[in-house]
Amino acid sequence: MNIFxxxxxxxxxxxxxxxxxxxxxxxxxxxxxxxxxxxxxLRTYLFEDILRxxxxxxxxxxxxxxxxxxxxxxxxxxxxxxxxMERQSRRRGESAWVIAQRYTQAFMEDLGxxxxxxxxxxxxxxxxxxxxxxxxxxxxxxxxxxxxxxxxYFDTSKQDDYGYLARLDKEGLAAGARVALGEKRNxxxxxxxxxxxxxxxxxxxxxxxxxxxxxxWHIECSAMASKYLEPWxxxxxxxxxxxxxHHTNEIAQNKACxxxxxxxxxMHGYFLQLDQEKMSKxxxxxxxxxxxxxxxxxPLAYRYLCLTAHYRGHLNFAWEPLxxxxxxxxxxxxxxxxxxxxxxxxxxxxxxxxxxxxxDLNTPRALALVWELVKSxxxxxxxxxxxxxxxxxxxxxxxxxxxxxxxAIPADILELVSRREQCRADKNWSESDRLRKEIEARGFAxxxxxxxxxVSRS
Length: 458
Ligand code: AMP
Ligand code: ZN
Hints:
Blueprint: E1 4-7, E2 12-15, E3 24-28, H1 39-57, E4 62-68, H2 84-92, H3 96-113, E5 121-124, H4 129-141, E6 145-148, E7 151-154, H5 170-176, E8 190-195, E9 213-215, H6 217-229, E10 233-239, H7 243-258, E11 263-269, E12 272-274, E13 277-278, H8 289-294, H9 299-307, E14 315-316, H10 319-338, H11 347-357, H12 363-375, H13 380-394, H14 404-407, H15 411-425, H16 429-441, E15 444-449, E16 452-457
Parallel strand pairs: 3-4, 3-10, 4-5, 10-11, 12-14
Antiparallel strand pairs: 1-2, 6-7, 7-8, 8-9, 12-13, 15-16
Helix pairs in contact: 4-6, 6-7, 9-10, 11-12, 12-13, 15-16
The structure holds adenosine monophosphate and zinc ion (ZN).
Residues 29, 221, 238, 246 line the site of zinc ion.
C-alpha cells in the first residue's frame, strides 16, 4: 500500500518512495544533553517513532540515525551566548562531560519507558569532530566561508535559494536586523566553527586549521547525517522550531558541499504547549516524564495521549486528557488481556488501519478504528490477534501487560500452576488435584479457562 507523508520542503503530501532497495534512511535531530528531556521533546520523538514503525510495518528496513548534541548548541540561535553545556557545567559545578553522560543516559531511559525504538545508530557530536572539520574545509575550498574574530562563518548570500525550506523572508530579516549584524556579513550567516573565547579554556575544545574551538550546532548534523546515511537520503525529522534555522542551515551546508538538500522529505513534529506556550528547556518551565510517573501516570498513557493528536497540530498539555488517556489505555489492556489467544488477524481491519497510518500517520483515526474493532462483532480471539498486529505501530505494549494481581503472584506459585497445567495436559488428574490443593492452601485461587489457568489471591 502507498505511503503519503507531509514534506515541508514541498509543503505538501507526497507519495513516499524509498531511494534504495535495502534501507530507508531516517535522520532525527537528537537532544541537547545539558538537562533532562521534557515531555514536549518526547512528543517529537514519539512522532518519529510512529514514522519509523509505520515504515517498518510497510516492510521497509529503516536505518534510523540520531545524534546527541553534546557540544556547540549556543544559548541563542544567532550563534551568540554561551554553549548550553558549558553554562550548565558552570552552574552545577560539574564537568560538561559528566553532565552530557548523565542526561544522555536519562534520555535513553525516557525513550525506553515510552517504548520508542532506539535508533539503529547513535552518534555524538564530540565523537565526530574530524568529520565536521573536513566538512568545513570543503565549504572553505568551495568559497562559502569567511572568518571573523570569533569563528568561521557560512556566507548565506552565496545561495540564491537559501531559506527555501522555511520560506524565509530574507529581505525582511536583513532590514530588521542591521544593528545586530556585528562582524557577520548577512543576518542569516551562521557559525561553522567557533573559536574558544580569548583567555578562556573551554572543557570541550579541539584544535582545527582555523584555531582552537568547537563546531557549530548545524555542521554536527550535516556531517553525521552525510556520514551514516550518505549526503542524499530519505527522511529528515525534528521539531517545528528547527525549520527556520537549524534545518535551513543543514540544507545550506549540504547544498554547498554535496549539491543535495540532504533529505528527500523534511518532516516536523509540532509543539506540545503548556498554557498555549511552547514548553522549553531553557525557560525552566517544563515537565519531565518522571514528574508524570511520580503522579501515578503510566508513561504509555502519555504515549496514548500523543497518539490522540495528529503530529502536525499543537497539543496543549493538561492533566484531564492525560488521565482520560490513562483510563482508555487501561480499558484497552483489560480487553486485550481477557480475549483468548489463538485467533486470526482480521484482514479488513488491518487494511483499514494501514490506510490510515499510511496517510501521513493519522494516529487519531487509527485509534478510533481500534475502538471500533473492540466494539465490533469480530470474534474475541480474532480481535486479540488483530490488535497485536496494530500494536506494532501503536507501541502500547498490549501483549506484555498483566493485571496487577497477576504481578503480585510469587514465582513459586506460578511454578506450581505451570506444573499443574502440565499434569492436566498429561491427564494426570490425581497429581493435578494435589497441586490445586497445595496452591489453595497457600492462599491462591485457580480458575481453568479455555485460554489457560488463571490464578489470583483468594
Ligand atoms: P533539544 O534537546 O532542545 O535540542 O530538542 C530536542 C527535540 O525536541 C527537537 O527536535 C526540538 O525541535 C523538539 N522540541 C523542543 N521543544 C518542543 C516542544 N515543546 N514540543 C515538541 N517538540 C519540541
Ligand atoms: Zn540536527
